[in-house]
Specification:
It is built from 2 helices and 9 strands, in the order βββαββββαββ. The protein is mainly beta. The protein has a domain of 102 residues: Barwin-like endoglucanases, CATH 2.40.40.20.
């Protein structure tokens, strides 16, 4: 015995008692992954008007918007096929059956009547919903009548 203590590290009454076995760190908790996918698309919509004095947005005939699930005031991404401009705005409904597609406010400077647009909206989906998701898509003719979808 040295200094009143047993110097052997394996004895139970020793100051050299063994620490418990190390514990593995907890596994990281999975998080809910989401992915942004195309929800709605109106392809080849023909601009019928442009009003720079209006406060903003894109007017879309209500029947066309509803057919692809676009809601009033929903955020959209628009691509102008005539000049390559891309912009974000929101949808307002025009009269159903009118075929109206009107650029309003600042967006009126990004196109003119006769230009063809692609109007898109997106949704965040979890992995399970994304696996089976199909966007709602329509294709329009020059009079904004549905020719496909």
């Amino acid at each position: 015995m040295i200094g009143g203590h047993d110097a052997h590290p394996t004895r139970a009454n020793s100051r050299y008692t063994r620490s418990p076995a190390p514990v593995a760190p907890a596994a990281p908790q999975p998080f809910a992954m989401t992915i942004c996918l195309l929800k709605s698309k109106i392809h080849r919509a023909c601009v019928t008007g442009a009003s720079v004095d209006y406060e903003g947005s894109l007017t879309v005939a209500a029947d066309l918007a509803e057919r692809v699930g676009l809601r009033r005031y929903e955020r959209i991404l628009v691509g102008n096929m005539a000049n390559g401009a891309r912009f974000e705005t929101y949808v307002i409904y025009g009269p159903p059956g009118s075929g109206v597609i009107e650029l309003n406010g600042a967006t009126a400077l990004l196109g003119k009547p006769g230009d063809r647009l692609t109007i898109m909206s997106f949704a965040w989906l979890d992995a399970a919903a994304a696996a089976t998701h199909e966007p709602a898509v329509i294709v329009l003719d020059a009079e904004n009548r549905v020719i496909r979808g």
